[in-house]
């Protein structure tokens, strides 16, 4: 397999892979370069870039695995296109956020956090469970809203009957206010989101012990003796490492219980609509975010990084970047990373 890397926009890195796709061949990278140059998108070759996405939408479904991006030391893979498929993969945590249509790499993640039961977010769950069983991997752990647990079990039962196999998995129902310890030792706490069907987001926390301030700088022998005498010399430090909204309207931003999500080191947040062709009010009626919501509440986001997902398929990659660049305040824009796997249909480039 050969690959070329181009810079197609001031924020947009593409890796063009010459690989066979189901029912068709990907155009040679050189031909795609010419198309991008013709549209004024290509600014030259880059060297040894690590963060790429495949530049197609529909044909990219045939890719065996997804390119990853790295944000704050965490690898992020998967795909998110509104109404089609959302599955965010965090391989270092063995975690999938929703299952989409079950991209191949997602099946190797032990834990799935489901935000809600719309098909573009839950449709791949039976395949995820079945694939792990087929590969002899431990059963999937599925964390999901309590109110959809019974229906989800029914979905899996139907597939067990069809597949003629056990398809074991562990379902963990939860709701805002609950706390779970995941296999990766992170603490998971759901928070309320706002969508036409029952939904919730998730915050993930790390915990570690830190030396109390009054003991900092003291000799290690003294601290050891204090410990041996039964003195507590450390305190627990909790850090919100990650938050995931799933699909939601902007009400979550001001809702009680969302404060942790708005200060998480990495916030993975939907942003479906980016221009005035869809009014904010219409976006809200559908239970989605509009870019104006991000602008209006810019001061509330204290996150180091914000991964924006779930863009409408009506947008091209260039349109996504143009709207983000033109409309977001500078301080917020520099912290926002659009998740582009699946966008920029090169057949139209």
TrEMBL record:
Transmembrane segments: none annotated. InterPro entries: Metallo-B-lactamas, RibonucZ/Hydroxyglut_hydro. Residues 111-311 form the Metallo-beta-lactamase domain. Gene3D superfamilies: Ribonuclease Z/Hydroxyacylglutathione hydrolase-like. It comes from the Eukaryota. This is Metallo-beta-lactamase domain-containing protein. It comes from Apatococcus lobatus.
